[in-house]
Amino acid sequence: MADNLSSFGPTSEELASLPIAFAPDLFKGKTALVSGAGSGIGLAIATLFARLGASLVICGRDSEKLAVAADFLKGLGVEVTSMPMSIRDPEAVSKLIDLACAGQGLDILVNNAGGQFPQDALNISNKGWNAVVDTNLNGTWYMMQTVAQRWVEQGRQGTIVNIVADIWRGMPQVAHTCAARAAVIYLSKSVAVEWSPHGIRVNCVAPGMIESSGFRVYPAEASSRFPASNPMLRCGSPWDIAGAVAYLAGPTGSFLTGEVITVDGGQQMWGDVWPAGEPEYFRQSRVI
Questions:
Q1: Fewest Cβ atoms closer than 10 Å to its Cβ: which of 66, 117, 177, 272?
Q2: For residue range 157-181, what is the model confidence (pLDDT) as tens digits?
Q3: Helix and strand element counts for the chain (H, E)
Q4: Domain chopping of the chain, boundaries
Q5: Can you give the pTM of this predicted structure?
Q6: Torsion angle, CA of 187/193/195/196, rounded to 10 degrees?
Q7: Which among 30, 188, 202, 28 has a CA at the least distance from the CA of 104?
Q8: Taking the domain 26-285, which CATH number applies?
């Protein structure tokens, strides 16, 4: 299931033909901005919006990957604007949001961009910690605040969906992203109240173990055990996350704000994830 956009998860051709549970043209006349849309979960989200009629603005750090994704999405018959940039840069974020809010305006922001690397917390350097928190928390905040400011200036309502993580029982070996994603969840709950008078809804989707291009950062020993992280004993698909985002962004989510939809096959209740490989201490405990 690999192509030039991803070595894990569905190919772009499969994304273009997977079943859809929503009405055709659900987002016709709407514009959605999806960050990190060059591959993986972000590309799946952008694809579903395109197949449901939305115009798209996409961004990402890898200009070549983004260009390939933009060409694919345009092939689905919708208008696509792409901008290579880093959400860590507040000035670049401002330019991106201005671009997205021009013309017919922006209706939906999906903060999907982010990343992390597996490492024991004792060994995370200050540089590594700051890099993950700067992207996953600060970058998300820059996007949220800037788009909300534009919407308030324009007297326009909008909806924000933040892609976070399955933080509910902690995330050993990725403590930096657990801290950042948990912060985004409670940031979202806070501004969902503050921004409600402006007609701005803010929600989150927390993916569990989703087979996507993000799997490439994990050692084979760890990724081979990922299906055992939940009682369904399999990994989910980026399409599962795209469906949850569409649910929140569309009319079905009109009475939801400050909420988190966890899409994890039951991982939050059962199963362990060791993204850098299971420590011997815990491996031994399983056979006692």
A1: 272
A2: 999 999 999 999 999 999 999 999 9
A3: 10, 7
A4: 26-285
A5: 0.93
A6: 140
A7: 30
A8: 3.40.50.720
